[in-house]
Amino acid sequence: MTITRIDPEHRMSEAVVHNQTVYYTSVPENLDEDAEAQTANALAVIDALLTRVGSDKSKILDATIFLVEKSDFPAMNRAWDAWVSPGNAPVRCTVQAGLMNPKYKVEIKIIAAL
């Protein structure tokens, strides 16, 4: 079985594809925005990566959302609900976590089928 590493670097790869499955973690690029905007941005980045590898959000199997502030849960959900593929919602969990960049309000890890 082939393992394809997307944009590999010394410390990490942008994404990994193995056995028709995509593994990816998205962080927002708009770090001066609120949690809803950061979530929407991180989700758009997921869309771009999935398109790049030949998949899309309807094929996401599992999502883990890391939020710095529990109070941002409703804002994150507004962005998620506007984005998620109708009828194709993945398994999802949301955890409160301290993220490495102090400007991150959200980070999203996904596993998707090709």
UniProtKB/TrEMBL annotation:
Domain of life of the native organism: Bacteria
Residues that span the membrane, as ranges: none
Pfam families to which the protein is assigned, alphabetical: Ribonuc_L-PSP
InterPro entries reported for this sequence: RidA_CS, RutC-like_sf, YjgF/YER057c/UK114, YoaB-like
Endpoints of the signal sequence: none
Family as reported in the entry's similarity comment: Belongs to the RutC family.
Name recorded for this polypeptide: Uncharacterized protein
Species per Swiss-Prot/TrEMBL record: Pantoea endophytica
